Amino acid sequence: MNAQQPERPEQELLAQLERTEARWSRIDMLLRRLAARLTYAAEGRTPQLDSTLGDIRRQVREPLAACRA
After folding, report:
1. How many domains does the chain have?
2. Which of 13, 15, 44, 60 could be stapled to 32 by a disulfide with Cβ–Cβ 3.0 to 4.6 Å?
3. Residues whose CB is less than 8 angstroms from the CB of residue 43 and which lie 6 or more positions away in sequence, other chains included
4. Are 28 and 64 in contact (CB under 8 A)?
5. Does residue 59 sit within a domain?
């Protein structure tokens, strides 16, 4: 008899969902970092644009749950 019992379908599904959530969390973090860096690249054109870029940076720093509310 195998020492490891096969996972039940519910456990398998839960493990898969947790892996998917972790991947999306990493993608979210990378996209937020990219967005912030792009705002710095566009900075210095006009004061109004700089203000808007600062707003964007503040928004992308907020946790994902805060964005949904």
Report:
1. 1
2. 60
3. 49, 50, 53
4. yes
5. yes
Judge if pTM exceeds 0.85. Answer: no
Q: Which domain holds residue 69?
A: 36-69
Provide the token pair at 26: 């990493």
Encode pLDDT of 29-57 as tens digits: 999 999 999 999 999 999 999 999 999 99
Domain-located, residue 43: yes
In a domain, 55, yes or no: yes
Asked whether the predicted pLDDT for residue 66 surpasses 70, the reply is no
Handedness of CA 39, 40, 45, 50 (dihedral sign): positive
Q: Answer positive or negative: Cα dihedral of 58, 56, 54, 52.
A: negative
pLDDT of residue 62: 85
